[in-house]
Design a protein that fits this description.
It is found in: Cytoplasm. It contains 6 helices and 5 strands; from the N terminus they run E-E-H-E-H-H-E-E-H-H-H. By secondary structure, it is of the alpha/beta class.
């Protein structure tokens, strides 16, 4: 059972998806849930099936007092690095909340202060707190949806299955077809990348 955070005011959970991918954006979500929100299925998105994530998303969106999902794309990731891009995506998602939280709960151990709001970094927070778990579901489902749309443009990379992660199949496609405009150029796409003219 996931915990609540012991405050009376609104709590925003934030999390990202796609940090370890070779292609596509890093996507972050922020969400504020009602204090009395409960759901027995909700947990870290990585622990749930695709079907359960799809089932939870509309429930979370309907219940949320406010939520937002934002992408930071590969060109900016290459410019500012993936850690800064992940934090930027979270800040962008927080920008669009219609309610100001008392505190931001962040999955992981790295974050930059957002405005004057308090924040708390929680390692594996998506498996501990409702609001972070909810943010992880939204970030994951929105990013997966986006990668499915890119798959139609570049089906040979199998993004409908790997979502841009460095699977053997994805790396083989890079070896065969080269990089697309959606690939992150600063990431080590192949073990022998130093010998590739990219």
């Amino acid at each position: 059972m996931l915990e609540r955070f012991g405050l009376n005011g609104p709590i925003a959970g934030t999390d990202e998806a796609g940090r370890g991918c070779l292609a596509g954006p890093v996507t972050a979500a922020s969400i504020i849930l009602p204090k009395d929100f409960e759901n027995e299925v909700l947990t870290d998105s990585k622990q749930l099936s695709k079907q359960k994530r799809a089932m939870l998303r509309p429930i979370l969106e309907k219940a949320a007092l406010s939520f937002s999902v934002k992408h930071v794309f590969q060109d900016q990731i290459d410019q500012i690095n993936i850690l800064n891009a992940s934090i930027l995506a979270m800040h962008k998602a927080l920008d669009d909340l219609t309610l100001s939280p008392e505190i931001i709960l962040v999955d992981g151990n790295r974050f930059k202060p957002y405005k004057t709001l308090k924040h708390k970094c929680i390692i594996k927070g998506d498996g501990k707190y409702l609001s972070i778990a909810a943010a992880s579901i939204l970030a994951k489902t929105y990013r997966d949806e986006y990668m499915m749309s890119l798959h139609k443009e570049y089906p040979m990379y199998h993004w409908s299955k790997n979502k841009g992660y460095p699977t053997k199949e994805h790396r083989e496609a890079i070896r065969k077809h080269g990089l697309t405009p959606y690939h992150r150029k600063t990431f080590k796409q192949l073990p022998e990348q130093l010998t590739l003219d990219i």
